[in-house]
Design a protein that fits this description.
39% of the residues lie in helices and 15% in strands. The chain is an alpha/beta fold. The strands form three sheets. It has a seven-stranded mixed β-sheet with strand order 4-10-9-8-7-5-6, with helices on both faces. The chain has a four-stranded mixed β-sheet with strand order 1-2-3-13. The protein is globular and about 55 Å long.
């Protein structure tokens, strides 16, 4: 770990003040010298197990050689071409590969973007412009990005929306049916039903009539909120509401897609066919920034939508993404994520024996440990989250943690070896034990 006074750290701190949160960040953050597979190494040569896959992006591990090779070749051949003036082969090949791997046959059209934010916003733009309706139904706790639009469509935290609250107005919100924090005495299924009633009675009855709503944006697993896995009856009920009212069902799979939850797409767990699918992060093996939206003929085939950005569909990024999709299928990576995730979940569930671990949950290699003051109160314990996170980093494992949160997440590369995963979990378990007492 880099200590105070280290030159790269000081330059980092001075040049990027936004990323420097406190003195403590200095002790935990590392300046990466190189990254490979499931590891990163800092400038002092210390190696860390990467349980973040760089915010669920490097699903094939850090710097996958095959993806890197095709990217370099595509760069040499095409450089940058704009998709709008000079469409190119890699973007067509990528679109075909996406369609080959779609969650449901109704998705026949593709739109390219640069980031998950752009994909989520692009999907919303398509829904609003194709329907001619102004509103989007969203769920409290979801994250779709930090552009002005996605920040206000999402609602991960009031802190992130600070200064921008008044710019909203296009979204109406229902609670996300997060089973662990359901009202006492309610079953998970009942809670899902309660949220559907809330939409019918409190939203449609009091805030907006159904024909003013263009669609629903939904994270099939709300990862940033802390891996909230909704009751499956709820997701099917939501799809039925969409069908009944002519709402487009937008699945935001920027984080859950591409094998993260043990299937290629998380929406497959619920047997629902979305009208729009936002894809990002892991699509290009972490080698190039690119994102995409898939849509139905109805929502994408006809409407002329004002969406896009210059660098969307960079030829080399398209080539990287096509190769990544090929590898995900060839090497049965979603199945691997399911297998490793199931084994890991069996082990980490045992941590619920600690009074300060409220719940451990997961789907595929998307797991979360919810830290609470005690099991009875279930009060979130961000201070303990902080201590556990810093302890892990100090001992050579980097879990995923939103600064200031009470949830520690485990989202390693889907290619991580069972031994490296076990070693990372050992570190986390020791940290949980060390910080058991208040
Ligand atoms: C569900 C979801 N949507 C959208 C985004 C935004 O993606 P990006 O940060 O690549 O713009 C994220 C990022 O974490 C996400 O988890």
């Amino acid at each position: 770990m880099r200590g105070p006074g280290q030159e790269p750290w000081n330059r980092y701190r001075e040049l990027f003040p936004k990323y420097f949160w406190s003195e403590e960040t200095r002790l935990a953050s590392i300046i990466v010298a190189d990254a490979k597979g499931s590891y990163v190494r800092d400038t002092s040569g210390k190696k860390y197990i990467d349980l973040t896959s760089q915010w669920a992006t490097n699903n094939l591990g850090n710097v996958p050689d095959e993806v890197l090779d095709v990217t370099v070749q595509a760069l040499a051949r095409y450089g940058f071409l704009t998709y709008f003036m000079n469409p190119h082969l890699p973007m067509i090949e990528l679109a075909e590969k996406l369609i080959e791997n779609r969650p449901s046959p109704n998705l026949t059209r593709v739109f390219l973007e640069l980031s998950g934010t752009g994909a989520a916003e692009g999907a919303v733009k398509h829904a609003v412009e194709a329907s001619g309706r102004p509103l989007i139904l969203s769920f409290l706790g979801q994250y779709h990005g930090l552009s002005i639009g996605t920040n206000l469509i999402g609602s991960l935290s009031a802190h992130e929306r600070r200064h921008w609250e008044a710019w909203g107005g296009g979204a109406v919100y229902a609670p996300y049916p997060f089973p662990y924090r359901r009202p006492r005495g309610m079953s998970e299924t009942e809670y899902g039903g309660w949220v559907l009633d809330y939409i019918r009675e409190q939203i449609l009855g009091r805030q907006a009539e159904a024909d003013r709503i263009a669609g629903v944006i939904f994270e099939p697993v709300a990862c940033e909120a802390g891996v909230w896995i909704p009751p499956s009856g709820f997701v099917r009920g939501l799809a039925k509401l969409c069908h009944d009212h002519g709402w487009y069902f937008i699945a935001d799979e920027v984080e859950t897609g591409l094998g993260r939850t043990g299937t290629m797409w998380a929406i497959e767990h619920f047997g629902v066919a979305p009208d729009l699918l936002a894809i990002g992060k892991g699509i290009s093996g972490g080698i190039m920034p690119i994102a995409a939206v898939m849509g139905t003929e109805e929502v994408m085939g006809r409407a002329k939508v004002a969406a896009g950005t210059t660098f969307a569909g960079h030829p080399a990024a398209c080539a990287a993404a096509t190769k990544t999709l090929e590898i995900l299928r060839r090497d049965r990576i979603p199945e691997r994520s399911h297998r490793l995730g199931t084994t890991a979940l069996r082990r980490v569930r045992e941590w619920e024996r600690f009074d300060h671990v409220g719940e451990v949950r997961g789907l595929g290699l998307c797991l979360a440990v919810e830290l609470v003051q005690d099991k009875r109160s279930r009060r979130p314990d961000p201070e303990r989250g902080r201590r556990v996170f810093f302890d892990c980093v100090e001992h050579g494992t980097i879990p995923l943690w939103n600064y200031g949160d009470h949830v520690i997440r485990i989202e390693p590369p889907l290619t991580i070896s069972p031994a490296a995963l076990a070693a990372g979990l050992d570190t986390l378990e020791r940290a949980l034990r060390r910080h058991a007492a208040r």
